[in-house]
């Protein structure tokens, strides 16, 4: 996911009217399970990820639900969300941004490197209007 596919590169060269990329994943058996209960640390992580992905954070909301935490950052370009289930060492992550100036994959990878999941089920897709 870290490199552009040929089809994606061709689309970017043609300058579509709308371009976005959405990367999402399930993080299973997170080694850094302490952070999964830490609302402030997760908010900081979302801000770091946005910075790394060249995105502008507009607002952050978070909720503690039992042991778990949900953090949603509204970014100028769309959103970043993390939802955790620490009792299962599990988290879900969504990073969606519009504009070719952003790098949602880099933001996703930063979150992954911090939470340290043993297994990652992930995918991504373009949202394009040519």
Account of the protein in words:
With 130 residues, the protein is an alpha+beta fold. It has a single domain, classed as S-adenosylmethionine decarboxylase. It is 26% helix and 46% strand. It contains 3 helices and 6 strands; from the N terminus they run αβαββββαβ. A hairpin with a 2-residue loop joins strand 2 (57-65) and strand 3. The mean pLDDT is 92.
Please state the oligomeric state of the protein chains shown: single chain
Number of strands: 6
Order of helices and strands: HEHEEEEHE
Beta percentage is over 45%
Q: Return the structural class.
A: alpha+beta
**What is Rg?**
15 Å
From the coordinates shown, what is the CATH architecture? 4-Layer Sandwich
Shape: globular
- Cα-to-Cα separation, first versus last residue: 22 Å
Strand order of the largest sheet: 2-3-4-5-1-6
SSE map:
Elements: H1 6-13, E1 18-30, H2 39-52, E2 57-65, E3 68-75, E4 78-85, E5 90-98, H3 104-115, E6 117-129
Task: Give a short overview.
With 130 residues, the chain is of the alpha+beta class. The chain has 3 helices and 6 strands.
Which properties best describe this structure?
130 residues; alpha+beta; S-adenosylmethionine decarboxylase; 3 helices; 46% strand; globular
């Amino acid at each position: 996911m870290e490199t552009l596919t040929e089809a994606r590169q061709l689309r970017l060269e043609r300058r579509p009217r709308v371009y976005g990329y959405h990367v999402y994943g399930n993080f299973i058996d997170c080694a850094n399970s302490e952070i999964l209960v830490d609302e402030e640390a997760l908010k900081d992580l979302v801000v770091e990820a946005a910075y790394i992905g060249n995105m502008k954070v507009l607002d952050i909301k978070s909720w503690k639900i039992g042991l778990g935490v949900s953090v949603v950052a509204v970014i100028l370009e769309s959103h970043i969300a993390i939802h955790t289930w620490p009792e299962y060492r599990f988290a879900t992550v969504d990073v969606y941004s519009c504009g070719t100036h952003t790098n949602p994959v880099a933001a996703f990878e930063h979150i992954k490197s911090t939470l340290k999941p043993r297994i990652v089920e992930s995918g991504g897709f373009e949202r394009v209007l040519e």
